[in-house]
From TrEMBL:
It holds the Pfam family Expansin_C. It comes from the Eukaryota. Residues 36-147 form the Expansin-like EG45 domain. Keywords: Cell wall, Cell wall biogenesis/degradation, Membrane, Secreted, Signal. This is Expansin. It is found in: Secreted, Cell wall; Membrane. Causes loosening and extension of plant cell walls by disrupting non-covalent bonding between cellulose microfibrils and matrix glucans. No enzymatic activity has been found.
Amino acid sequence: MVLISGVSVSVSVQAKSWLNAHATFYGANQSPSSLGGACGYDNTIHAGFGVNTAAVSTMLFRGGEVCGACYQLICDYRVDPKWCLPGRSVTVTATNFCPPNNQGGWCDPPHHHFDLSLPSFFRIARQGNEGIVPVLYTRVPCKRRGGVRFTLRGQSNFNMVMISNVGGSGDVKAVWIKGSRGRASWLPMHRNWGANWQSSADLRNQRLSFKLTLADGKTLMFLNVVPSSWRFGQTFSSRNQFS
């Protein structure tokens, strides 16, 4: 237990790792599952993230590098006792980008800002608040059900893979792909946008393997996770997961 802004919160990190930010909510008239946005997650529930998601500001998004990362937030009750719920926290996954308006908005640099899904926002703030609340946040490990998922997109010899449901630090730093023909070698993939990684190798009608390195340096291989009968648009779930 640590005491933050007069509120006792159970966390597994040191208090010095908490940072100041603000939070709003978005998508009040949308299904929370549709808020995959700039990371490319078509459906956050199918991607393994549930409804507790957030669009993050430029300072946090870093061109999509943070997609899939997890944050624990508490509303800063000491600063705003009217709208903050004391002793409550929520863990969210970064799935979208809150764009700057270059007019001093909350998502403009240098602000750290979380535009939360509606269910996430009201986990830490009182009903009836339609505005903005001060929060404290920290990075936390992502706890996922099942293995890492690979969704195949693209056409012909342009392979694009959306990687989701990643545990551990959650944010993928590097990806390699390998086919099954001959003495296949690991080919580096490049981030196309968000959680989508691309390769120009023609790997049709081959079993596909992947190797992932996360931002914290942990690496896992996913051998033959995709069968040779794969088609674009399909998603394959592995048995391996980062801890």
